[in-house]
Write a structure and sequence with these properties.
This protein has about 650 residues and is mainly β. It contains nine helices and 37 strands. The chain folds into two domains: about 270 residues, Cathepsin B, Chain A, CATH 3.90.70; about 300 residues, Fucose-specific lectin (Neuraminidase, 6 Propeller). About 10% of the residues lie in helices and about 30% in strands. Strands 1, 2, 6, 7, 8, 9 and 10 form a seven-stranded mixed beta sheet that branches. Helix 5 crosses helix 6.
Length: about 650
């Protein structure tokens, strides 16, 4: 092959025609335009693991457990990787000889994680320019995609966190193994709001640009804003790599870049040049046996390849010479999950699978009892510690960015608000003190969230008062740690509780039940005086406070708002589920009625179990019961208790 450098798109097109190549040059480039040369990033001589060194691994030992993602559980059962196929799948066992790598018959001929089973799983294409940081983007893309696949939540992460945490200059290359090791040993990978990826100032000469280095000073609550990971897995066998892509998720890969690769548009890349430009790393998001190629997401922005995604032939440019890297067991932070739960229940990162449910209930002596449920079968609820002595009703319960502390807020028997928090480092509940109006509706549940006002984000609380109004309180999460009166608003509020969400535009939204049994939205205009305004009215016959979250339905990517999901008890002891399409702007719609003998809805979440909705209700016999919804509808779950959960004056 010729060794001269390709300078224009027209020259490269002529080269491809001469070689009968199966790919095309970027369509937006005119023939006379030079082919762009974005930065690469694989450090020359990086100590990558070769495919031969990685060899074959015991896939069954690594992935032979049911996933919270039911689609993956079915794929693992089809490959015979599970010790026993789950009952609802009904798959027959695969002969042991076929288990080591998974059988070709069980593996689909193509996988594409951009759209699989009707869902998107990959965060948007990013741009590393002008720094040599593809290694960081490949590692971060792997963490983001596995958080989405394993926990059904978008968790955008920052390349700057690992790049600058490693004290790398802009022109300094690296490798994904070093990046993943740093993430694992430094408490995880933070979100961009904690520490962003930044490029050097425009206009710097090349030498100064390459030497430019960001000073790494993340926000001091980083420990509660990171997706934590375990040790990465090295896969050398191509067939096992495909089984991994089918049953686990994407892989990070590195390869040699030749001059012609910079112009790759559509089609499957086969090199037509011998001139080596350097090494590069990408995220492998699928494969296509019919086309004989890997599908990858690059980090050069959407103007390269086809919307930032390309195809490279099996074995081409050393893509299969090096091992590819996978992850299992991501542990998502409470900041990423902050809109996905409300009321007295949420999903923490605790447990083997990092998806335990945590719940607070009332107990004898006006105390609060902590319950938890392991994220694996048989999903039994267990008691933990009890605390407090003045709880008049169920609390709001959440996790914060303070080292993932649990935060509880309840109305006291004297009509005030009291904050408790579980200090993760000491593993003990601590009294955060009482504050508030003095006339909070006794027996009611307040709302408590952590917003993004300030770093760390403020706590925002809203409670119903005895005069049928709503009262907002907030705390700057820094010295002197005092709660501030945000004012009262509304009137004729019969029930209010765990129904407060901060939107992506930084607006606060809530839903309350009026005295006429209908529900009403209230919203705070943060851009114009922090004033609360009444919104739409919907529903009828509500007899308790609604429970509101922003879920993942409708959230097609990490920047799009998901649907509002709301559950409320109505006359007759039933629960109504309502939803509103935030991205589409649709009106509130009632989708289902379920349950029996229900007094109030106390908690709601969407967790790691295949986009299921999970709801906790208080029944007329004063026990709590778990209900959940999957693709086939609503189901009754476990009774939690016995608990003392009487509704006092003011209602739930």
């Amino acid at each position: 092959m010729p060794e001269e450098s390709v300078e224009t798109a027209g020259e490269l097109r002529a080269r491809l025609a001469a070689y009968g190549a199966r790919w095309s040059v970027l369509e937006h480039l005119a023939d006379e335009e030079p082919v762009p040369r974005p930065s690469l990033g694989l450090e020359p001589g990086a100590a990558l693991t070769t495919a031969e060194e990685a060899g074959r691994i015991d896939l069954r030992a690594l992935v032979g457990q049911e996933s919270g993602n039911p689609h993956l559980t079915r794929r693992r059962a089809a490959h015979g990787l599970l010790a026993a196929a789950p009952g609802e799948i009904g798959s027959r066992a695969v002969p042991p000889a076929a288990v080591a790598a998974g059988t070709a018959a069980a593996r689909p001929t193509a996988v594409d994680w951009r759209n699989r089973w009707g869902w998107s799983w990959i965060t948007a294409v990013k741009d590393q320019n002008p720094c040599a940081s593809s290694w960081a983007f490949g590692a971060v893309g792997l963490v983001e995609s596995m958080a989405r696949i394993e926990h059904c939540v978008w968790a955008e992460r920052s390349e700057g966190d690992v790049h600058d945490g490693l004290k790398c200059a802009c022109g300094q290359g690296g490798d994904p193994e070093t990046a993943l090791d740093w993430i694992r040993t430094n408490g995880g990978l933070a979100d961009p709001g904690c520490w962003p990826y930044t490029a050097p100032p425009a206009g710097l000469p090349a030498a100064r640009r390459d030497a430019w280095r960001a000073e790494y000073t993340p926000s001091w609550d980083r420990s509660g804003r990171t997706v934590r990971i375990t040790e990465h897995v090295r896969l050398g066998d191509v067939e096992q790599q495909k089984v991994w892509l089918d049953t686990v998720g994407p892989l990070t890969a590195c390869f040699t870049v030749y001059d012609d690769f910079f112009g790759l548009g559509a089609g499957v890349y086969h090199r037509t040049s011998d001139r080596v430009a350097g090494g590069h790393c990408v995220l492998i998001v699928g494969y296509d046996d019919a086309a004989g190629c890997w599908l990858f997401r690059n980090s050069w922005g959407t103007a390269h390849h086809v919307g930032g995604y390309g195809r490279i032939a099996y074995g081409e440019a050393g893509i299969d010479h090096w091992a590819k890297y996978g992850l299992l067991g991501t542990n998502v932070d409470p900041w990423s999950k902050r809109r996905l739960h409300a009321g007295n229940v949420y999903e923490s990162g605790n447990g083997r699978a990092h998806r335990n449910f945590e719940l607070l209930a009332t107990a004898a002596g006006d105390r609060l009892q902590h319950w938890w449920r392991e994220g694996d079968a048989p999903f039994a609820w267990s008691r933990a510690a009890s605390f407090a002595s003045d709880a008049s009703g169920l609390p709001a319960f959440t996790g914060s960015t303070y080292n993932r502390n649990m935060e509880s807020l309840h109305v006291t028997t004297g009509g005030r608000l009291r904050h408790w928090y579980y200090e993760q480092t000491a593993r003990v509940w601590r009294d955060g003190g009482a504050f508030g109006p003095g006339d909070a509706a006794v027996g009611s549940t307040p709302a408590l969230i952590q917003s993004d006002h300030g770093k760390p984000g403020n706590f925002e609380a809203v409670v119903r008062t005895a005069d049928g109004r709503l009262h907002h309180w907030w705390r700057i999460n820094g010295a002197p740690w005092t709660w501030n009166d945000g004012g009262r608003f509304g009137s004729d509020i019969a029930h209010y509780g765990p129904a407060l969400v901060q939107t992506r535009s930084r607006r606060l939204d809530l839903v309350a039940t009026r005295t006429d049994g209908r529900m009403q939205v209230w919203w705070r205009d943060d851009g114009h005086g922090l004033t609360w305004h009444p919104g739409e009215v919907f529903g009828a016959g509500a007899v308790c406070a609604p429970c509101l979250i922003e879920g993942q339905y409708g959230a097609c990517d990490e920047d799009t708002a998901g649907n509002y999901e709301l559950c409320v008890a109505v006359a007759g002891g039933r629960v109504e589920h309502w939803w509103r399409g935030n991205a589409s702007g649709s009106a509130w719609r009632r989708s289902a009625v379920f349950g029996h003998d229900v007094l109030a809805v106390t908690g709601m979440l969407q967790g790691s179990f295949g986009f299921n909705l999970e709801v906790v209700v208080l029944r007329t016999d004063r026990v709590l019961q778990h209900h959940w919804r999957d693709g086939s509808g609503w189901h009754e779950g476990a009774v939690i208790g016995p608990v003392r959960a009487a509704v006092r004056r003011g209602g739930a």
